[in-house]
Amino acid sequence: MSDRTPVQLRILDCPIEQAQAVIDVIEQTGLHLEHVEDGQPADDQLGLGLIYMDNAVVCGSAAKIANALHQAASGASWEVWEDPEQTWLGDLYRFTPALGLWSADCNSVGDPLFTSAQALGLIDERLPRARLETKLGIPHAEALRELATRNDGIVLSPSTGHA
Q1: Considering the entire predicted model, what is its pTM?
Q2: Domain count, the chain
Q3: Lowest CB count within 10 Å: 1, 41, 135, 150, which one?
């Protein structure tokens, strides 16, 4: 049997015309809202900034979800990560249309992790600060944080075409 681990997805921004495609990916991959609460989005709505998850996916599912989202909704901004399992680190994928795709190993809350060899390799490259920050994923993290603040609480309803 394949190893299984939790996976989490957060959509931080999405054009209304691509919201249904994102909902379809969420449904096809078996994700659901992290918490069941009154007032949360219906199944045919997309809640920006909310965590959609599954507690037991096959390891490697985050990469498949990232690929599906990128192909189905290239105008959306999101992050998806799967938790570490046994001796493997987790996988983190972040995407914005302006910055493209960035990925790294991660911990169980989606924080990127770098080995000492990777860190020393970056030091040895003697990159300008902006390039170093890009390799560390800082522009992606900042862009997604800004979108999370701006779009907090927005629910997209593709069937009506309204947020």
Answers
A1: 0.89
A2: 1
A3: 1
